[in-house]
Amino acid sequence: MFTMLLSGDMMVPDADLTAKLLVEKVGLIGHPNWRQAFPNHPYVAHFLRTHKSLAVAPTRVEPQGHLDAPNEGDPMFPVFLHSLEVFQGVSRPIKTHATVLITDDLSGVIQRLHDRRLPFRIAKLTPEMPFDRLWVGCTPEDPRYEPSVDGGLCIEIMGLAPLQMPEAAFQTPPPVARDPQPGELSRVVGRGFLVRDLDDVLRRLRENLDWEPTGPVEVFEQEGVRRARMGFSLGHSATVDLLEPTRWDSETGRYLHNWGAGPYYVRLSAHDLEAKAEDLRRRGTRFTSTESESAGGRLLQIDPEELDGILIEIVEHV
Most buried pick, 113, 130, 210, 254, via CB within 10 A? Predict the structure, then answer.
C-alpha cells in the first residue's frame, strides 16, 4: 500500500495568483517557505496547508504553474507536460501535473514495474532534487503520457524520506488539532477523480501498482455516481476518490461530458461547518450548501468561478 497522497494539486497558469485566491477565498494557510521554485526546474508550486502541522494534516493543497523556460534539471519533462495537457483537454478547468503518491518502499515499487515490463520514467538526480521521482505511462525514449498503467490518473510516485515528515504523523491514533476554533479548517480529506470506466481503472491499479480500494465500490443512486475510495497506510492522508457517473445528467455526469475525465474536487474538512459557512460569507466567497449522501452529510461547495475553475468542497471534521 502507498503511504499517503502528497497533495490535492491543480496545474494552473499562475501558481502565485491561485495560491493567493485559495488563502483569501478559502482560508488555507500559506507561507513563503512553502513556495517551491528552482532555477533549473522552471515551475512554481505552493504547498498550502489546512493546519500548520503536517502531523495533524499531512496532505497539502498544491497549485503548480510551469514556466516557459528551458528545463535543465529534467529536459524530458516539457514533452511530458505538454502531453498531459493534451490528454486532459487544453480547455479543461481542472488539470493535474501529477497525482503524487508517496511510498516508503520506492525501490520495491520501481522493481515491480521493471519486472512487469511496464512503461515508466525516473527523473535524473539534480542538486535541487537529489531524490528519485517516478512517472508511470511514459519512458525516456517517449516521455509522452499514456494511460495504460494507471487508467488516466497521471500518477507520479516519490519516496517518503525526502518529505521529512514529523514522527508524530505516524502515531496511532493520529494527532489532532489543539483547541480548534469554530470554522477552522482541519485536513484535506479527499481528492476526487472522474473516470469513464471505474472497473477498468481499478483493474489497472490492482494489476500494475498493487493498489486496491479500501472497501467495495459504493453506488449513490440519488447523486448518480459509483465511487471507489483509494486509501493509504497513513490513515489521515486524503483519499483518492474514483468517481464514475451512472447518469449523464447527474452533477458528475455533466462535468464528465462537458470537460472529460480527470481531476475533480479537492475536499477539505472543517471544525463546525456552520461556522465555516459564516467565514466564507465574511470572505465574500460564493458557495452552495447541500446534503450529500456520498459526503456523509452536509457539504459546502465553493463556486468554481471564485477560484478560476477549481472545485473546493468542505465537510464537517469527524
Answer: 113
Q: What is the model's pTM?
A: 0.96
pLDDT band, very low/low/confident/very high, at 17 (cuts 50, 70, 90) = very high
Q: Which domain holds residue 250?
A: 170-316
Q: What distance in Å separates the CA atoms of residue 96 and residue 85, rounded to the nearest whole number?
A: 9
Of the residues 146, 168, 190, the one at which a domain ends: 168
Query: Does pLDDT of 1 surpass 80?
Result: no
First to last CA, the chain: 24
Amino acid at 258: N
Give me the DSSP letters along 223-254.
TTEEEEEE--SSTTSPEEEEEEESSTTSHHHH
* Cis-peptide into 173, omega within 30 deg: yes
- Residue-wise pLDDT for 180-206, tens only, equals 999 999 999 999 999 999 999 999 999
Domain count, the chain: 2
Contacts of 259 (CB under 8 A, 6+ apart): 89, 91, 92, 93, 94
